[in-house]
Amino acid sequence: MSDERHGDTAEAREPRAVDELTLYGMSGDLWQLLALREELIEVRESTEAVDADILTYFRGLARKEDGVVHVLGQLKAQERLAVEERDRLEQRAKSFQAKREHLEGYVMRVLAQLPEPRGGGARRLEGETASLVLARNGGVEPLEVYDESLVPDEYCTFTAELTSEEYAACRRVLPESESLRRAVRYADSKRIRRQLLSTCRTCMGSGFNAAGGVCANCGGGRTEPVAGARLKGRGHHLRIS
User: What is the pTM for the complete model shown?
Assistant: First the structure.
């Protein structure tokens, strides 16, 4: 019964053919052989048989590793080709995009020169199967802060590093401190945009003064100004309908 119980273990300990082993499996078996060799040396027994097995495994590992190195080289080359192909396709895509944008810009300039349609609406060129429409962009108008130093403090936010004592003092009376004087100043786009969209309080949105001239505050723009900032037009895009 003892032989039957240990039969599977005995078979598992038998050396496997080198060609049947994976690189990982061969490395594991080799470590076992090296450990066995160390044990034989400790008990002063011959290591000739183990050395022969180790040599066999080393030769097998060399063949396996050569194959792995070859496959890795092939994969690296394929990776390089794929990257080159990706770069080539990206360049083609950029070329097509540039040509499309150039043609769209030309069509938009042509549409912009057409007279305003009666009753409003967008300028368009009608074709037999489709129309080219100069459509206004949606969303908020882009804000441009062209000189932040000109923007009044009331339209800015400030960031400062405060000690705990300064913070406590600021919460009470907001006194000036060296940290506050070193505060970093940022233009607050929300406040600026809100001001630029509000009706001019001088001319009440008419754009003119009482004498019929241009309002000195808004310059005829009919909204409140903010020094150093302005709203840019939403612009247009070409729509095919």
Answer: 0.47
